Amino acid sequence: MFRSFLGLTALTIGLIGQAQTSLADSPKITWPCLNPPTIAYDIPGDTVLSDQQSFNCFAWQEFIGVNWPSDTSAPASQFGTPRDMSPVVFETYKNVHDLLKPDGSKPEPWEAAKSLPRSLTTSSKHVRVISRPGKLGNNFDPSSDIDEAAPAIAWLADRDGNLVWYEIFVNKDEYDYFYTNELYNSINQYQAAKTGQKIDLPMGQLDGQTGAMEFKAAWLTVPDPDNPKWDHYKLSTGVFCTDVGESNQVCTENTIALVGLHILHKTTSQPSWTWATFEHIDNAPDLSAVKSGDYLDDYTFFNPDCEEIDIPAACQQEGGPTKTSREPNTPPAYALTDFEGGNPVGECLPYPIQVAREYSLPSTNEDPILQTNAAAHELIRQANPDSVYQYYRLIDVLWNDSAVNENAGRDVPHAPLSETGFRPNPDAFPVANTVLETYVQSTTCVACHSNAKIASSDAERHPTFASDYSFIFGMAGPDPSE
């Protein structure tokens, strides 16, 4: 059962007998919030405290809960054990492609075991097939798969040319909403909206249901898993399959490392959702530090000695560059076209993309992100000094200080939904993740998600019916334009 963590403090660790050291021997943790998280399996449904500091701590409790071992009875000492490849809670949720089939057919119920490709052979106990962005068409295009606000060509590779892969997960409350209302089918979505049924995902409640949650994860291909640096990352096993026919399908198995995670959560106090985002501390430097030259040289997605590379003639776009760019956050010069399993092949291969954070993390009384992260890291270390999660940081949480439930009215809402009242102020500090919004860091989540609509491209079908800030509805099949 999920429970509220309001009023709980780090002292709870000792009370539940999960801490590895006594509090008397541990540094005192100073939290800039009144609802500090705990190292325990707890995914809160909501919080009654509506201020930035509280939502920052709320987000950390979500992060801890969804990254708990899938055996939720595991002690705190096992939270983030290095090189533990077994799935954590959010990895046991359903991938969006398990929910939404191209033909709009009914998915398996939540409890059903995931079916694997017949051509897949693996020795791994825990297998997850990574659904390719763009389904391996003519482009590796995250925007077509996870509705990331990004250019048409938007793949990302680290300083060594290793690719980042993207996944979306939904929790049980959201999956069951689609399943029960048969909204996995685009035609059903339109018929429901036309007859007055609103797309109204379940809201989390204090000491009650969790509510709808969506997760966007960014995973980096790990070519050298024996390298000690991966002791600081949450690792998993990814299986990548090219093509879908049994006769020509090629599957490869790779170690992958979590480098970014969005946590979207609809709650009673936030019907316009909370939008929290985390990433690994070694991803990229601040752009201000790059300009001043005051930064480290071992970031995963930034190399101060990066050199321009000639773009093969076969890969050059008409009017496009002939060399790769050393400037941070420059979109790729060409698409990736050919894969064998998880391996890009051919002339147009991935190359290093320079990444920098355009907006430094805030450290103010209103939004003390740095202090909150420091407290969370110490809390994690007290439970497990080697935990990989001490190397992840909260970037920020977007929430609404005057939240309005747009489904409370008489009529079915149309997009765009409201973008007003969100904090932090999107004009002052757009909340962006360097590996999930690399190329559009000045655009905040809600600016895109407020335009989310049901899956319809037929003007006569009123395609502006809103889908409750969720782009997942728009991915349902069959394609109504065909």
Indicate the topology:
Blueprint: H1 11-15, H2 52-66, E1 94-95, H3 96-99, E2 128-129, H4 142-146, E3 164-170, H5 172-181, H6 186-194, E4 213-222, E5 235-242, E6 250-265, E7 274-280, H7 287-292, E8 338-340, E9 343-345, H8 369-383, E10 392-400, E11 422-423, H9 445-449
Parallel strand pairs: 2-5
Antiparallel strand pairs: 1-3, 3-4, 4-6, 5-6, 6-7, 7-10, 8-9, 10-11
Characterization of the model:
With 482 residues, the chain is of the alpha+beta class. It has one domain (11-475). It is 15% helix and 14% strand. It contains 9 helices and 11 strands. It has helices spanning 11-15, 52-66, 96-99, 142-146, 172-181, 186-194, 287-292, 369-383, 445-449; strands at 94-95, 128-129, 164-170, 213-222, 235-242, 250-265, 274-280, 338-340, 343-345, 392-400, 422-423. Strands 1, 2, 3, 4, 5, 6, 7, 10 and 11 form a 9-stranded mixed sheet that branches. It has a two-stranded antiparallel sheet with strand order 8-9. A hairpin with a 7-residue loop joins strand 5 and strand 6. The longest helix has 15 residues, at 52-66. Residues 1-24 and 133-149 have low confidence and may be disordered.
